[in-house]
């Protein structure tokens, strides 16, 4: 049983008697001595030994039970428990604070000095035992049960309980605000991985690291495992910590909170713990008194700690698993199994918590609009969720517009390859759950496609189409901020982009990819050697990439040949022929509100005369829209002729023979 305040009162009285017996110290007949005796007597009246307690115990004495629990959970010995009670005393009894002030001085603010605390525990103040008990390596300070205030000599510092510990010992179970802001509800999802993790927890694993890529139920698996081990779950998202918060403090307080609540701790967003500057924190986590499960998008870094935690890779949900969660959240109306939109929802690479958030938003939209809840509203809610997810910061830019396959005009073979790429993305997890079909030896389950073709042929638009069809943010890499003149910096910048794209479940789009994926050359000087190193790094990193990447290039021949076997798709975007150009003219002109019936646009003449790309046609039609609005007249063939001539001059090209068409009216 932990020491009580009655025992502390005896120790205080003995300390007072020792001071009264020393010549020069205030005696019991002085004002200070009388005040000290009165404070001790008040404590004696309020705190009695269990055998002397009345039948109806005072509410303030329930702290004894909580001290017993903390002593057991944190493995405190008798001396540590005495020091804990000594630090608690002034928090619950003003008479104890008065006694400590009278014995230690007004500067102590009613707290026991280290010297007084050790004296009352019977520990010599100059002993190594006293130093060890209250060192940063000791259990009391390491687990933040007790703090030392003041910066003077060790013996003159004061024992202080953190507000959360004193509140808990006095019956308040509310976590501190800094922790409450990070807490997030998690519903357990039992799988074979959760059963295995539960056995690891039962075997005493203090720290487990779950590698949970986008779309994987890492948090839900962790919660199910802790529940199976008979523990409550305290889940917190480290990525939600304020910018000014010190990570080591947050992690330590989370571990302490889990112990105070006798709960296992699930730390979401644990990728930050794998950063080199935070490796030492992992060593502290391996000393936790309650199980901690870290859920991260990144695999464990073997350099992060001196010992290995329990490691597990959590695969993404299958198409069937996501479909079941959507049905559970949205309901399963008749015929929903054959609903194409429901299948499209299940194809989105979302984890259970994201599906829950999107479903809640869909319910809200249905109530606001007074519409029936269905897949269409759920799809809209999912777009809001994905668009609201922080995209890859600089050096990447998130795509703002939403597109579909109907927005792009391609030859049948290119269109078919694009549709096949989208289908691969939708069913990737279903294929990967069958086994390492992608190969072994460090190969991940990512998909890499190359779009090749001249400028304006639709490569960038096609990347947007793929991203939107899969419900992903498109993150276009800004090569000007990635490529660095200093040796090794380009690889660091690229690694940061890859990691952030994986963490945010984004489609990574390299425009002008030959700038970084170019052919390796014969080494003639140091610049060649380091340029080849960058390409070799990219070759390896693309194989380890867990997401979807698209490389766009105008010059396919400039791409290093070693990338060919790492590409799953190569889609060529040819310059449009006359028939395709006609479709492009129709598609873009449809967006103009008013066309002049008296001056109709000659689609056949334009598509046959102007050998331009889809991007050029877009620019011409945009110019037509501005000109017609400025003139406040409907757009006609005359506007198209002038806009086409300006576009040709901008491109530095000669207009074709026979221009303008006979149908043009100047």
Automatic annotation (TrEMBL):
The keyword Nucleotide-binding applies. CDD domains: RecA-like_protease. It comes from the Bacteria. This is ATP-binding protein. Gene3D superfamilies: P-loop containing nucleotide triphosphate hydrolases. The keyword ATP-binding applies. Belongs to the AAA ATPase family. GO terms for molecular function: ATP binding; ATP hydrolysis activity. Pfam families: AAA (PF00004), WHD (PF22977). SMART domains: AAA. Residues 445-577 form the AAA+ ATPase domain. It comes from Phytoactinopolyspora alkaliphila. Keywords: ATP-binding, Nucleotide-binding.
């Amino acid at each position: 049983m932990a020491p009580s305040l009655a025992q502390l009162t005896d120790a205080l009285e003995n300390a007072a008697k020792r001071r009264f017996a020393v010549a020069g110290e205030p005696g019991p007949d002085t004002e200070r001595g009388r005040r000290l005796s009165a404070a001790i007597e008040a404590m004696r009246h309020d705190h009695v030994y269990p055998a002397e307690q009345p039948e109806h115990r005072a509410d303030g004495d329930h702290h004894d039970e909580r001290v017993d629990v903390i002593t057991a959970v944190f493995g405190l010995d008798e001396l540590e428990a005495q020091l804990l009670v000594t630090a608690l005393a002034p928090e619950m009894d003003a008479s104890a604070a008065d006694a400590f002030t009278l014995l230690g001085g007004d500067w102590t603010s009613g707290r026991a000095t280290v010297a007084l605390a050790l004296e009352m525990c019977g520990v010599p103040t100059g002993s190594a035992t006293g130093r060890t008990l209250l060192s940063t390596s000791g259990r009391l300070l390491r687990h933040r049960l007790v703090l030392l205030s003041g910066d003077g000599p060790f013996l003159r510092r004061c024992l202080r309980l953190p507000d959360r510990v004193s509140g808990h010992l006095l019956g308040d179970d509310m976590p501190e605000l800094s922790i409450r802001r990070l807490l997030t509800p998690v519903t357990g999802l039992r799988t074979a991985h959760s059963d295995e993790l539960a056995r690891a927890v039962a075997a005493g694993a203090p720290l487990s690291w779950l590698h949970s890529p986008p779309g994987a139920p890492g948090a839900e698996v962790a919660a199910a495992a802790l529940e199976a081990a008979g523990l409550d779950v305290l889940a917190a998202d480290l990525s939600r910590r304020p910018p000014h918060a010190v990570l080591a403090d947050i992690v330590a307080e989370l571990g302490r909170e889990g112990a105070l609540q006798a709960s296992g701790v699930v730390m979401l967003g644990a990728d930050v713990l794998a950063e080199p500057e935070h490796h030492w924190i992992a060593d502290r986590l391996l000393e936790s008194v309650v199980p901690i499960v870290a859920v991260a998008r990144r695999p464990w870094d073997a350099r992060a700690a001196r010992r290995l935690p329990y490691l597990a890779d959590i695969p993404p949900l299958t198409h069937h698993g996501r479909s079941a969660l959507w049905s559970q959240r949205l309901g399963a109306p008749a015929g929903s199994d054959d609903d194409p939109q429901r299948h499209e929802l299940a194809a989105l690479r979302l984890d259970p918590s994201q599906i829950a958030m999107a479903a809640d938003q869909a319910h809200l939209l249905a109530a606001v609009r007074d519409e029936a809840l269905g897949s269409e509203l759920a799809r809209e809610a999912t777009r809001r969720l994905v668009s609201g997810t922080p995209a890859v910061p600089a050096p990447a830019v998130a795509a703002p517009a939403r597109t579909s396959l109907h927005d792009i005009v391609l030859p049948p073979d290119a269109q078919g390859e694009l549709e096949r790429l989208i289908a691969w993305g939708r069913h990737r997890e279903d294929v990967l759950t069958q086994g390492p079909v992608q190969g072994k030896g460090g190969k991940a389950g990512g998909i890499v496609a190359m779009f090749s073709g001249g400028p304006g042929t639709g490569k960038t638009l096609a990347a947007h189409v793929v991203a939107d069809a899969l419900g992903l943010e498109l993150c276009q890499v800004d090569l000007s901020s990635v490529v660095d003149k200093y040796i090794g910096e380009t690889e660091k910048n690229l690694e940061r982009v890859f990691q952030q794209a994986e963490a945010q479940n984004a489609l990574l789009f390299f425009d002008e990819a030959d700038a970084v994926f170019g052919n390796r050359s014969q080494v003639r000087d140091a610049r060649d050697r380091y340029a080849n190193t960058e390409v070799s790094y990219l070759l390896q990193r693309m194989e380890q990439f867990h997401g979807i990447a698209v490389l766009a290039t105008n010059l396919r021949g400039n791409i290093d040949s070693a990338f060919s076997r790492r590409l799953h798709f190569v889609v060529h975007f040819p310059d449009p022929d006359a028939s395709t150009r006609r479709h492009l003219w129709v598609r873009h002109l449809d967006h103009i509100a008013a066309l002049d019936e008296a001056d109709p646009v000659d689609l056949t003449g334009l598509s046959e005369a102007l050998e331009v790309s889809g991007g050029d046609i877009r620019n011409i039609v945009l110019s037509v829209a501005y000109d017609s609005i400025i003139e406040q007249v409907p757009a006609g063939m005359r506007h198209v002729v002038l806009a086409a001539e300006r576009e040709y001059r901008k491109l530095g090209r000669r207009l074709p023979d026979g221009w303008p068409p006979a149908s043009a009216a100047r």
